[in-house]
């Protein structure tokens, strides 16, 4: 009987083991199916996929069993953290294991500063992990410190002219400001605006003096103040002059946190608050409260603890020993940290579906924990460490990094990865990319920029411009038009103008189509291919025109990174519009507006391809405005400008204290009629300013076409319909146009521009242009 019972138990155990193995394989199969494309993109060897899943499922962070953190020493590969990760095991073969590395923080470009300011403890945690704004000095005499000091001195020398111009100070003052800021232009300009030299101790003393004066006799006592973790406001519960018997303590919660994550305990003279298990407040109150009458609630991402005082009296502090912050000083500090963080942030992108069902690229940025930051950089890496998005069975995404060895490791070896993207091979461009992370001496970038600027100047001196015909098109019969994708509205517009709408291109006298039709009078001009990509049009103009007053500086984030870094250092506190082409599945990458050249460089990680200078004069009425000019290039070389007013594309810009946030992905553009925008521009910029800008933009568009036509002439039958986009630059004579892009107008867009556009083009080609639609340009 016992034998039978034992056999049954063994059979049951075996069956359970089989069931468990089957369940695991089923779960792993789902994991592989959901993540196959991502795993292949990582180039993670297939035999490591299952171990990776096992560690994810078991939440196993076991790299500490194989490696240890050690103090960074001079020589050898350098990392971003204050430690290096060294192998503590006897050895590890290439492709033999895989590890999970946690992320300390995930955010978006626009939320970096907002999160640092609003999420309790995040600013302190970030400074602890990265060492940002740690004491300069200490360890002097080491090669590492000498390199840092050399880099700071080089940055000071490079940025003195920019600070002198932007802050209106002399050379000695600019140099002092830069030395205090470690060569950082933005921090130096902020210190100049504050009227100080950036001395933290002095600033703290001034702040404490102000607080003491506010709390002292005769001074008005503040009823509202802030600390690093919370805000306080005290008031009368009954209103009026009933005495200050109420005080609110408000804590900003991290994104996604709700009331269920909050633990709040109010005692007679003690308050304890924690969020998701992390303590936020745990201290004695200034005086006694009625714990039973006090309440707390979460609303709009903020925890509000409302305390009822036992005695209606003024409280100089809420929690005994709290340290107040000056909101303006804290905001400046947050901006400095946010700007410096682009050395440490890494990005990944995914596709998100908009409400109109179109796909858009959504980029997230993350800060690794101490382990991830301790992985050093090397041109000959021994590990790879890449972001991975895990999608669990409930549809929730968990981001972390995956690390695995790609070369044999011995005990004591420093784990090192290549910080540069895999596609970046050119040594100088790699150096330019790494400049955004390690900030070495920048002379190589300044030299690269100088060489490119000289090349642009030489091109401008020798640039040839094609002659434009002053005559109208010779008269010819035009009876029918073909408009690709035309519907009932197109038919009504075409027939209302006295033409027939042809069913096929072969039946038409004039063809509006994005595809070529050899021999036909077609809108597919030879210039279409030259200016089709985002940022590509400006690059084309730079190759044929060089440096022109109406042309934005633009740099490829694939082949001109070093040149861009040099130009950004020379520009100082300049702004850049970072753009990318449509990627896989037609998803558009939203343009990014930033004052951080390091942020622009790091966006190359996530598919952005160009950085264009963006004058802040283009930020009008809370949005970035780009004005469009519509130009018709006839087959005989005549050029016509659309006379019914162009369009203005506007993208909302997030701002703080009257300045755009230093890095933000811009939302989809809204379109306004030029006449409507001109009225607002007149109110904000003065009368006549936009009209002068529009006339200058017309001249610039015609000049650009003349330059291109000398290189890419038409075939004698095609005509072109082009949209030129201009930013606004503040100049001596008012607003000046800066060419930001050009594109051929697709056939499907014709009617959206104006129902009369296609028939009006046909009239030009027939030799009888209507003056209410087109004005001829001659130069």
Textual characterization of the structure:
The structure is a single chain. The radius of gyration is 32 Å and the shape is globular. 34% of the residues lie in helices and 25% in strands. It is of the alpha+beta class and 779 residues long. Helix 13 links the parallel strand 21 (480-483) and strand 22. Mean pLDDT is 82; it is low at 134-145 and 196-219.
Give the gist of this structure:
With 779 residues, this protein is an alpha+beta fold. It is 34% helix and 25% strand. A hairpin with a 5-residue loop joins β14 (346-353) and β15 (359-368).
User: What is the number of strand segments?
Assistant: 38
- The chain-level mean pLDDT equals 82
Q: What proportion of the residues form beta strands (DSSP E)?
A: 15-25%
Uncertain segments: 134-145, 196-219
Termini gap: 109 Å
Structural class: alpha+beta
Looking at CATH, the homologous superfamily of one domain is ATP-grasp fold, B domain
What percentage of residues falls in helices of 4 or more residues? 25-40%
Known CATH architecture of one domain: 2-Layer Sandwich
- Radius of gyration, rounded? 32 Å
Query: What kind of sheet is the major sheet?
Result: 8 strands, antiparallel
CATH class of one domain: Alpha Beta
Number of helices: 20
Give the topology, please.
Blueprint: H1 2-42, H2 49-57, E1 67-71, E2 83-87, E3 91-92, E4 99-101, E5 103-107, H3 112-118, H4 122-130, H5 143-167, H6 171-180, H7 185-194, H8 200-215, E6 224-226, E7 231-235, E8 246-252, E9 262-266, E10 270-275, E11 278-284, E12 295-299, E13 302-308, H9 327-340, E14 346-353, E15 359-368, H10 370-373, E16 376-377, E17 383-391, E18 397-405, E19 409-410, E20 416-417, H11 427-438, H12 443-462, E21 480-483, H13 488-496, E22 500-501, E23 510-512, H14 536-545, E24 554-556, H15 561-571, E25 576-579, E26 592-594, H16 597-602, E27 610-613, E28 619-620, E29 623-633, E30 639-642, E31 647-652, E32 655-656, E33 659-660, E34 663-665, E35 670-673, H17 674-685, H18 689-711, E36 720-731, E37 734-744, H19 750-753, H20 757-765, E38 774-777
Parallel strand pairs: 16-20, 21-22, 21-23
Antiparallel strand pairs: 1-2, 3-19, 4-18, 5-15, 6-7, 7-8, 8-13, 9-10, 10-11, 12-13, 14-15, 17-18, 24-27, 25-26, 25-27, 26-34, 28-29, 29-30, 29-31, 29-36, 30-38, 31-35, 32-33, 36-37
